[in-house]
Batch of 3 targets.
Target 1
Amino acid sequence: MKYGESVLHVEPYGIDAIPEKERHGKSRSQFTLWLGSNLTIADFALGFFPIALGMSWSWTLAALVVGNLLGAYALSLCAAMGPYFGMPQLIISRRLFGRWGGYVPAFLNYLSTIGWFSVNNILGAFGLRVLFPTWPFWQAALVLVVLQGLIAVFGHNLIHAYERVMSVVLGVLFLIVTIVVWHNPRLMHYHPVLQANPWVMFALVVAAALSYVGSWGPYASDYSRYLPSPRSKAPVMIWSFLGAFIGSLWLELVGAGVAIVAGAATNPIMALHQVMGGFGGVAVVAIVLGGTAADALNLYSNGLAAAALNIRLPRWSLAAMAALIGLALSLTASGSFEQYYENFLLLLGYWMTPWLAVMIADFYFIHHKLNIHTVESQSNMTWPALGSLLLGILVSIPFMSSTLYTGPVAHALGGADLTFYVGFLVAWVTYGIWSRPRSVR
């Protein structure tokens, strides 16, 4: 049966290339997809981070803008690969890294997607318990898992339809939240003690914002691969960038505003409910719905990551399995959420940026492996790609800065986290040198 644009049929395709007869949609669909999925509770909670560090409004705004610019641009570069190959992002990656080498980013992205699912599910369950105080946490988490799991099981077309609706619904709800928060007089009286070295805090917040929105990159093509083969990459890039940048930056600024009014040390959901007053219920509904919009993507792409690891089960069953694992993680981590979220967010990008460097370098500049005219790599390991990824991670270890580990360079810089930039640069340069064709005498 032809899948086409059907919304209420379970998607029949997994990690195989999408045939031309099934290609459909417009590039602008990427705008509503990435806008809806970024008007979410994780972005909102991230806005508390710079205020908790004692950053001023100007430094907070600058850091969040820079981080989101970099992250959204990286996402858009990955999204543009989808229509070109008609494949999920990790299968495109396997063409570059080799069959076994491709297991490395596939496994790391499997962990990333299930981790993001649990982060959003914890916050969403907190929100449901504000609306329904008698519910225990496990019940709230289970309700959300069932809803998000059903969307992921039905697959690509239902996800796009859901995000189109959510981009409008959440846009209206968060516009109300923005107006209420921005008219609170406490915002005008926010004057934190000036930091002796604000660049350290600036680097940390840029890294966190970049890590969040850029973490969509390893599954961006999952949602653009059904688009018709493109004449130009620009439309997909532009629409993806705008949706991700606007949604993520907007919610982070709202979160920062709520943190100022209510205090950065409070629970983000309870703080929003308190600040909104009579509109508290509306705000919490927006938070809960935003979590479902993001987690539908996390579950769907987690199933594709599992398939890229050669777990030979139907795509829909892999998505259902991911929902159960995510539920277990949510129940386990909910008691220490703040530490869990901060550590996970910062550690996430340590593999992501070297991987992005290799993918972007090959597809946009070198054209060595990621070319539509080449067949999938038959080698088990493609060492220039895999070696560059691993070296990028290894060299960046001294620059890491988190509560779990602080490298010597980060310690010398007062805690500034430069891991993302170092890892990207090292992997980029290494791959560019390593993959150059050698002259034959």
Target 2
Amino acid sequence: MRDLPRRPKTLPYCDRRVTPSRGMTLVEALVVISIIGILMALVIPAVSAIRESARRTQCRNNLRQIGLAMDGFQAATRSFPAAGPGVHLMVGGHTRLAVLKQFSPQLQILSYLDQENVVKAANLSLASDSGDAPENATAMSVHIRVFICPSETSALLVGSTGPVSYRANLGPGPYLFDMDDHPTGDLPQGGEGAFGYGHSFTPQDFKDGVSNTVMMSEKLMGDGESASFTPSRDYWCLGLAGPDYPAADVLVSMCANLPSINPPHVSDGGSSWYPVGFGVTLYNHTVTPNSRVPGCKVNGVDPTPDLSGNFGGVFGASSMHGGGVHCLMGDGAVRFVTDTVNLAVWRAISTRSGGEVVSEAF
């Protein structure tokens, strides 16, 4: 049989002509890097904004929970908690306030925030009136999440005591007392807010209406660094000796006039939710939210951390949220009040019975 012709062998692959691939040029690499940089510049702020929006939502929810706890306390006791439970005594022919325990409103509502174990650890029946007695160390060390704004970044968040972001409103005046309550009767303004030092108020005491009165708002914690002064967080010591103390606007001007970039100051503001005092759990409406006026206390020049010994000063609301602060109203609503709010309006919504007429659009 005749053999068929064979097919020619295919040339090996390595013998084929292959066009070499061309690498990326320097110009192309720079263009790609520029595009990636632009995308990152767009994406990172968007992600940060989303995260801050989530933190704001959680902050509002914290205040709503505190508002529900306030309502629970009021329903059980027929009044809102006092800023330090107290009684009135007759002294030298005049009725004077005697504060029995330095208990903050925050401490008094813990049972209504599912924190009964903390209340039991607080040994309230044994506590001294100093508010920081040794028998309360265990309770004071507890960090209660609902009391902390998620946007807060202070070093006090890892401190040995439970810090607090949300403070009780003492009104437009810079002092704890009004003239009738102070032992010497020499303080011009105080005691007009939703909470009173040594006083507990019922809803009927809010002549302006609970829905028109701020109960609590945010205040940034101290920076926890005593070596330097941070105006937005720390408060400095004026060291006024009395007996005559200035009214609110005069005091604000004095606080704005810093004697140095690092005056005697306190950096542990908001370090504990337990005791009552402007240094920790109270604030006032002497200045608008996030004011450029640094905080200050009228008494003392000693920068030693003091939890509750500040009877007056500029302790305004502040937050890490851009443009304003959250406020818990007496009816449980939470409103965001901007930094640009008129000072007269800001002070008006801090009084429980000032008789002011305030527009809803503040």
Target 3
Amino acid sequence: MTDEDAHTLHFRWHGTDALGLPQHGMLLATSIDHAEIELRAMGMRPETIRPAKNSKSSAMRLILGLADSYQLRSQQTRLRGLSARDLTLFSQQLAGLLGAGIPLDDGLETLEQSSKQTLRRVIQALQRSLQGGLNFADAVAAHPQIFDSCYVSLIRAGEATGEFASALDVLAANYERSAQLRRRIRQALFQPLLILCTALGAAWILLAFVMPEFASMYQQQQQTLPELTRWVIALSEQLHAANNRLLSGIALCAALGAWVYHRCTPARMLIHRLWLTLPLLGPLIQYANAGQMCRTLAASIGAGVPVLEALPFAADACRNEAYRRAVTGLATQLRNGTSLADALQADPCFLHSLPKLVRLGEKSGKLDDMLEQANTLYDRGLEQGIERLLPLLEPILMLLLGVLVGGLILAMYLPIFSMGDLFLD
């Protein structure tokens, strides 16, 4: 047992959460001040904190502590469920109200009356924080499950420079463009995925349900079957016999793969690096991550956030782990005195055009404008790449569908064709 564990005590507390609802429980801390810090970090407002009595057993205190922790997490998750669309709409409407000269408190009250239930809870929590003396940046920072660090930093920069409404406009535009890009990608990939799922589903139905009936019929006739038909019947019998084991194996492999992907950082990093090297998808992934990075950097720098502080936000915006690590590594080179353009050029993970655009922005003093142009360029490159890929992907999938389903149907009817030839002879 360490010294810290020896001095840890149980404290019983009463207070309210971010919505003003009464809460209570028990907490492990080294002192009352430490307990208050821990509760405020969890979004609670403690009113009374006192040492808990030692009448309960150690097991009971452990159970109460775990129950209290679960209760706190449950209260925090009540504010979750706010979609990117809701956050975009909230930022746009609040920016419009502030731009019209309406005070922040009145603007939030107006939005509260016209918002849905989930967003109304968020606005109520922000209003309570403002009434407690916090500024708006600290109020949104108290809800990291909704507002990310980039959102908080841009709001803080907007408050410091007097461009609060402009910062909200930039955030809303950023979320809107990201949502539009994701929507276009989903729409573009919907038809190929539908064709692929149709092919696999049709093959499964033919092998699992139709082919056994044909096999039974051919067995009763006791005729010699073509090689293709025998091979498909054997595959169908193996699939039917090992149906439960096959499904269990697929589920186990999927669960194991998901666990390794989410828990093992080296494995996930290796997979993401391989994605960047794929012949057709690799450039598209680079365009998508480069656009996200440039968009976030442009918004942060335009709001007055220094480049060194904006890089972690740009890294969080990247979905590819290898690209995210490369963006995070830029901060180390900048601290050593390297310019952003040189740091980008030294890493092969970034596109060749990005260092040139950044160098022009650094020389002209308009880095945010050049990053915005780079974002537009890469978004357009991503859309054009998807448009070029789909004409190649759809015929390949249609050919796969025809060969797979047509081959199975041909294998089923080949013996019937052979019987017709015998009758003709």
